[in-house]
Amino acid sequence: MENWQDKHIVFFDGDCGVCNFWVQWILERDKKDKFMFASLQSDFGQQFLGDRGLETKVFNTLYLWKPKQYYHIKSRAVLEIANVLGGIYKLSVIGKILPKSLSDKMYDIVSRNRMKLANQKCYLPGQHQKKKFIQI
């Protein structure tokens, strides 16, 4: 396992096909090796949620955590992931012109319907990608 304390950690619903699709999408574009991943259901994910007094039984929210700096949720997490990826994805900064309440409302619509949008599928990471998943 890589040193996760220097990375941006994406917490996602490990049982969600849409979430797994986006984890794979980030992995394929993370050329500068800035991200690691943990499911919200994992011990590590549960500790992250519990330490912050966040919901530990409902997994419909994406979190992006930069240890000792910040964490973002929902639409702001998505926008920050794009920003950290850099390149063309930095253009997502334009999304910050929308009020957080509106962009989070759009996020919630997708989140509520995510199980209908993609089949439940297990993503099997390659050997290098396995190192990017936190299994504590």
Question: What's the number of extended β-strand segments?
Answer: 4
Q: What is the typical, i.e. mean, pLDDT?
A: 88
Give the amount of beta strand, in percent.
Answer: 5-15%
- Give the CA-CA distance, first to last residue: 10 Å
Q: Strand-and-helix sequence, N→C?
A: EHEHEEHHH
Largest sheet: 4 strands, mixed
Overall 3D form: globular
Work out the radius of gyration. 14 Å
Q: How many alpha or pi helices? A: 5
Structural class: alpha+beta
Which sequence of strands runs across the widest sheet? 2-1-3-4
The low-pLDDT segments are none
Summed up, what is this model?
By secondary structure, the protein is of the alpha+beta class. The protein has helices spanning 17-29, 43-51, 74-85, 100-117, 127-130, and strands at 8-12, 35-39, 63-66, 70-73.
Task: Please tag this protein with its features.
4-stranded mixed sheet, alpha+beta, 136 residues, 41% helix
How would you portray this structure in words?
- The protein is of the alpha+beta class and 136 residues long.
- It is built from 5 helices and 4 strands, in the order βαβαββααα.
- It has helices spanning 17-29, 43-51, 74-85, 100-117, 127-130; strands at residues 8-12, 35-39, 63-66, 70-73.
- The protein has a 4-stranded mixed beta sheet, with helices on one face.
- A hairpin with a 3-residue loop joins strand 3 (63-66) and strand 4 (70-73).
- The relative contact order is 0.22.
- The model has no long low-confidence stretch (mean pLDDT 88).
